[in-house]
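testing teh design pipeline on a random one, pls ignore if ur not involved
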C-alpha cells in the first residue's frame, strides 16, 4: 500500500489507496475503547470499565481484535470489504454495527522491541462490529468470531498525520442500515476531529498504552503491547472509536440480509444530505472524496 501525498488527489475524486487484504493479513489490529463521549453507555459497556483508571475525558484503553499468527481466536483474520458474517452459536447474536474511523500505521520499534512510534499513512471507514455478550470478561471476546467479522473500506485516504487542522479537518463519519428497502441512520453523523482524543494526543496515548497497559482480572483490558511485540508486525490497523448511536442504531441489532454502510467523507465536498441520498439509493459511486464501506450481513 503506497500513500500519495494528497488524500483527494485521485482524478475521479475517490480516495487513492486501494485496500489490500492480503497485506493486512500481516497487520496487527486493535481498537480504542471509549473515545467518543456516550458510546460505552449506549452499548451497555460502561460498567465494565468501573475499575479502569483513566483520566477525565480520556479513552478507557485499547483492545486487540486481530493478532497475526496468534494461536487463539484472535488469530482468525476478520477483515472484509463487503460482508459481515453472522456468528455460529446456539443463541441469537445481538450484533451491532460500530462505525469508526480506521487508521493504518507503520510501526517504528525501539532497540528493545517496544513500539517507539506509530506513523499514520491511511484513514477510512471501518466497522468494529461487535457481539453484545453480557458476562464477557474481555472486550476482545466480543470482537472476533472468525472470518468476515470486521469491515474496512476498499478505498482509503492517504494522510501524513492526524492533525485536526490538517488534511482530515473537514472529515465526517456517518453510518446507516438498509433494511427491507428503507435506509436508517445508525450512528450520529459526526466530525472526525471531534473524537475525545485525536491527532498527536491520540497517537502518543496509544504508544503509551502499548508500553504500559497490563489488563488483568477485574478489567476488560489486556496487555496489547505484549501481544503486538510477540507478533512484531510492520503495520497496525486501529479502529479509533465508535460514534454515538441514533435511537434506531442503539436499539436495532443486525440480521441476515441487512446492508450496513460506514462512510468517512470530506464535509467540504459532500453534505450529510447528499451522503444520505446516495446511501438511500444504494449507489455511492457519485460521492466524491468519500471512503465507503458497504457490507451485506450474512453475505
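output:
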Amino acid at each position: 500500500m503506497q500513500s500519495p501525498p494528497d488524500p483527494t488527489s485521485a482524478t475521479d475524486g475517490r480516495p487513492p489507496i486501494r485496500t489490500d487484504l492480503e497485506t493486512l493479513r500481516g497487520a496487527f489490529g486493535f481498537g480504542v475503547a471509549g473515545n467518543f463521549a456516550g458510546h460505552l453507555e449506549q452499548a451497555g459497556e460502561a460498567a465494565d470499565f468501573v475499575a479502569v483508571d483513566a483520566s477525565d475525558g480520556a479513552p478507557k484503553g485499547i483492545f486487540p481484535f486481530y493478532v497475526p499468527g496468534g494461536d487463539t481466536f484472535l488469530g482468525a483474520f476478520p477483515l472484509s470489504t463487503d460482508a459481515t458474517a453472522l456468528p455460529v452459536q446456539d443463541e441469537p447474536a445481538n450484533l451491532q454495527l460500530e462505525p469508526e474511523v480506521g487508521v493504518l500505521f507503520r510501526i517504528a520499534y525501539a532497540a528493545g522491541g517496544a513500539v517507539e512510534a506509530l506513523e499514520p499513512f491511511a484513514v477510512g471507514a471501518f466497522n468494529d462490529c461487535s457481539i453484545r455478550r453480557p458476562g464477557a470478561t474481555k472486550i476482545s471476546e466480543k470482537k472476533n468470531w472468525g472470518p468476515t467479522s470486521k469491515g474496512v473500506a476498499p478505498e482509503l485516504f492517504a494522510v501524513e498525520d492526524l492533525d485536526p487542522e490538517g488534511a482530515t479537518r473537514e472529515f465526517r463519519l456517518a453510518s446507516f442500515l438498509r433494511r427491507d428497502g428503507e435506509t436508517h441512520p445508525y450512528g450520529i453523523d459526526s466530525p472526525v476531529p471531534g473524537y475525545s482524543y485525536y491527532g498527536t494526543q491520540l497517537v502518543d496515548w496509544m504508544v503509551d498504552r502499548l508500553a504500559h497497559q497490563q489488563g488483568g482480572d477485574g478489567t476488560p483490558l489486556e496487555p496489547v503491547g505484549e501481544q503486538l511485540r510477540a507478533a512484531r508486525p510492520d503495520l497496525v490497523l486501529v479502529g479509533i472509536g465508535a460514534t454515538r448511536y441514533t435511537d434506531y442504531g442503539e436499539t436495532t441489532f443486525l440480521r441476515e440480509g441487512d446492508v450496513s454502510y460506514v462512510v468517512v467523507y470530506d464535509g467540504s465536498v459532500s453534505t450529510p444530505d447528499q451522503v444520505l441520498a446516495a446511501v438511500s439509493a444504494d449507489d455511492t459511486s457519485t460521492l466524491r472524496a468519500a471512503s465507503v464501506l458497504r457490507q451485506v450481513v450474512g453475505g
